[in-house]
Specification:
Helices cover 55% and strands 2% of the residues. The chain has 174 residues and is mostly helical. It folds into 2 domains: 93 residues, no CATH class; 44 residues, no CATH class. Strands 1-2 form a two-stranded antiparallel ribbon.
């Protein structure tokens, strides 16, 4: 969970109050002191404004750039309501960037595959296996394949080109 985006989602609730619940004391005070006759969406914060109100204006600008304008922001915030109640978790989901899904993930993470094999395959698909060529930053003297000592040990070579591992694969297949 991104704590900063969650904070933005929580403070968006206060912005929603400006739009929907104008009869509360807090909204009336803010409108009287800061906004006067200006819309919250058009207000430019001043140096003497409180930190919280400047932060709300900053979040307003983030929402405007995320949704693309005042009307689309209001529509987007309407979609973050369930049964007339504002849901900060829906704002959080709307603001966060979802983790990418890869087409090979459903193959790797299966209940019948032992986790150590799934993890190794996952590292391999992401090109993060600790092969000797990827560990050069540790100043290894010898980066050649640990099995045959012919070529530099890369992930591609280790699994598909090394004569020693090819013999192992052939034995497994038969």
């Amino acid at each position: 969970m991104d704590i900063w985006k969650w904070n933005v989602a929580l403070l968006t609730r206060a912005i929603w109050h400006f739009y929907r619940e104008s009869d509360t004391i807090w909204v009336k005070c803010v409108k009287q002191y800061y906004l006067k006759s200006i819309s919250f969406w058009d207000y430019l914060p001043r140096d003497r404004d409180s930190f919280l109100f400047k932060r709300l204006c900053s979040i307003r600008n983030q929402l405007l750039s995320h949704f693309g304008g005042v009307e689309s922001t209001i529509v987007g915030l309407h979609h973050c309501c369930e049964a007339g109640r504002f849901c900060t978790n829906l704002v959080y989901e709307a603001l966060r960037v979802p983790n990418p899904t890869y087409p090979w993930m459903w193959i790797i993470w299966r209940p019948f595959i032992p986790p150590k094999f799934s993890f190794t395959l996952w590292l391999s698909c992401r090109k993060r296996l600790a092969t000797r060529d990827s560990l050069r930053f540790m100043n290894l003297d010898d980066v050649s394949c640990v099995f045959c000592r012919n070529v530099d040990e890369t992930q591609q070579y280790l699994f598909f080109s090394c004569p020693f591992t090819s013999a192992i694969w052939c034995t497994i297949r038969t």
